[in-house]
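Lecture notes, unit on binding sites. The following record was shown on slide 14. It pairs a sequence with protoporphyrin IX containing FE.
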Amino acid sequence: MKSVHSFNPFSEDTISCPYPFYDAMRQQDPVHEAAPGVFFISKYDTINKVLRDPHTFKSGEGAAFLNFQGEEGLATPTRPPEVIQKILDKGQPSRDTLLSGDPPHHVRYRSLVNRPLSPGRVAKLKPMVTTVVDELIDNFIEDGKVELVSQFAMMVPLTVVSITLGVPTEDLEKYKDWSVRSVATLAGQLTPEKAIDAATASVELQNYIAAKVEEARKDPPDNLIGNLVQAHMLEDETGDEKNYRPLDTPEIVSVVQQLLVAGQETVNYLITSLTLLLLDNPKQMTAVRNDFSLIPKMVEEGIRIESPIQALGRFATKDVELEGKVIPKGSRVVMLYGCANRDEAKFKDPSKFDVQRDDLTDHVGFGAGPHYCIGSALARLESRIAFERLLTRLKNIRLDQPRDSLRYQYNFIFRALTELNLRFDKA
Ligand code: HEM
């Protein structure tokens, strides 16, 4: 095994296949200072400890999002340059609600969206999700080939999350464009032009949502935005009814923007990775084709072995010791979910894709603790239906590009194939 110090964690090679680096880290230096003041947490148990202690490891001040600067690593959050700030000032004032929320407010925001995204409520979306998936398949089934990312995997969650939130589907192309451009800040080094473009897209998306919120205030529709404009949140610790207040528009925009963006990219990456895993493991493909009750298990195994969100961060609020190493107050702690999900101390034969393992739902691909993915039920439903319908309607699915031409996004957070060209026969 190579020394952990011989890897550049931020190089394109490591990011396109991080697993040898992860193995070296877990075994040689499980709390690894990858850059000054940036500690990588690699073991399953240690990550769980961090995730469940939001007072010591906070998400606020942009801790969760890692500002990836390519080979240079992760930038410490600083105030954006004046030119970017001027653009951002035209959008909605920023509010720490979900991903960047901390106690005690975080849980109050969460409680407002918990119910509509609960497994029971999400199960009722099955007919809608099935229609969305089937219509997308209708668009390419006669061609005998498909570029899965753009024609299917990206469009399933985008369409579903838009309907769920109550953002009109006629505007799909618009917010696909805004989401892709605004999350570019999480990808590799941005040129000044790209940074301006990302800020502009984020502001356009915020102001678009704000307009929908104002419309919903006049006559609240029966969707998530409608629910949020009618919701009341407790302002302080008293629990006194008179201290409940409605949400202001920037708060609702923050919640909706996160659901829209988080709900779109992640499921896309999962569907694409899982398809490739099935192609690479024909026996598993046959097992699933012969028994669709394995599909939910396959989805969990896909999240474990190719975690769509590979890493997210926190800040240490005080000096703290982890695995015998002192992490000074103010350090950035990076939880490598994709690494924990291959921890041999937790998962037997962790690099094997096995849809029938016993410990399928123990992965931390959806996080854990107070920030556990609030969209997990929806993500599971979308992915399960996507594969039920794909495997029902397509047979003899095969790769339509050389295996070594597949590329992953140069992105520290997302595990994302850029495209996946397939051929198939109509079932
Ligand atoms: C396979 C798909 C998905 C994966 C792998 C995933 C992964 C995650 C992870 C790892 C976290 C924890 C964040 C942290 O620790 O700071 C998270 C939180 C979150 N996810 Fe997901 N997610 C997925 C789908 C979705 C969907 C479909 C939605 C929306 C409908 C969504 C919305 C969110 C939101 C809003 C949070 C923040 C929750 C909070 O901080 O309280 N996610 N997700």
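Take-home: The chain has one domain: 4-426.
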